[in-house]
Amino acid sequence: MNRTSEITNARPSAPLSWKVAAVVGSSALSLALVELILRLFFSSDFYIHENEKNLTYRYDPRLGWFPIPGSQKTLHGMRTISVVHNHDGFRDLEHSKTSDKPRLLFLGDSFVWGFEVNAAERFTDKLQVRHPEWDIYNCGVSGYGTDQEYLLLQQWFDRYRPSLVLLVFCTENDRFDNRLNFRDKAYYKPYFTTNSQGLELQGVPVPRSERSIFSGHRLLGCSYFLRMLVRCSCNLHAQIEEVPDPTHSIIAELQKFLQARGTQLAVGVTATDKSLQRFLSQSGIPCLDLSTTNRFHYDGHWTPVGHDFVCSQIEAFLNSQTYLTKSSRQSNVQNVNNGHR
């Protein structure tokens, strides 16, 4: 062995702590570089749009998402509105469990929940002021399809026991929503398929989407690199499904569910849908035309004036029927009690 080789072999190696520090430092530098690139060139791809869902809702394994009970938030959109959810999780009053007033429950999406309007500006609150002799329940949840609304009703019916359920059908997008297990490019949801036996629930438990994960763990969203990792993980564990439109079958099952409990179903449509209206007529389900031009131009939701119009339409319908008389309420309670014996 020559002298040069001896000198090389005798040279001491770097301490282990230095090697670890070098690896950590280079890794941190690489991550910082990736973070910078993502922020500079891909910020629009990983932008988290904040709205009523990720600010006041939580993940729900059966429904996809549901408002946080007792949550309060001021939302700043085209209008600044105050949002308060009651202890059940609905944007509604706290209702007395012992009230013997006839009960009217509204199902629907953001039109019922009250997108871009304060609670007092909504048709349900206006109707309650006009008719204190009734109990009005607003069970609207922003973004829901008819499938989620049906599941929601199953979950809460025994708690509220309404005399009448009025489903507000968003003609603009509910059929589309009912065909998919994904909503707003951000959230997974349950969905129904149809077969010879009827409806079959699919996609439960609902997969968690990246938006759902970030709303529950807000610190994760601070890093674009972590957003990228979460997106890759979500895409690996879930996929978007589309099925034939099950809307009519869902409404038929909803009607059957209510009839078994002595409760009437009515449907209000936000715009004309001849196929749906024909189906409702054939099924003996009252249909209300709630179409109005009093909408916000930027998203199509009802303005406060639009809500006032809808309130008047519903009020005229109810005044011409006997669904909310005390006798109908007592009959409904008796039917429910008999059904649970």
Lay out the secondary structure.
Elements: H1 3-10, H2 16-41, H3 52-56, E1 57-60, E2 64-67, E3 72-76, E4 80-84, E5 103-107, H4 110-113, H5 123-130, E6 135-138, H6 146-160, E7 164-169, H7 174-179, E8 182-183, E9 187-188, E10 191-195, E11 198-202, H8 210-216, H9 224-237, H10 247-259, E12 264-269, H11 274-283, E13 287-289, H12 304-319, H13 326-339
Parallel strand pairs: 5-6, 5-7, 7-12, 12-13
Antiparallel strand pairs: 1-2, 3-4, 8-9, 10-11
Structural features, described:
- It is a single chain.
- By secondary structure, this protein is of the alpha/beta class.
- The termini are far apart.
- The protein is elongated and about 90 Å long.
- It is built from 13 helices and 13 strands.
- Helix 5 crosses helix 12.
- The longest helix has 26 residues, at 16-41.
- The chain has helices at residues 3-10, 16-41, 52-56, 110-113, 123-130, 146-160, 174-179, 210-216, 224-237, 247-259, 274-283, 304-319, 326-339, and strands spanning 57-60, 64-67, 72-76, 80-84, 103-107, 135-138, 164-169, 182-183, 187-188, 191-195, 198-202, 264-269, 287-289.
What keyword list fits this structure?
13 helices; five-stranded parallel beta sheet; 341 residues; single chain; 16% strand; 13 strands
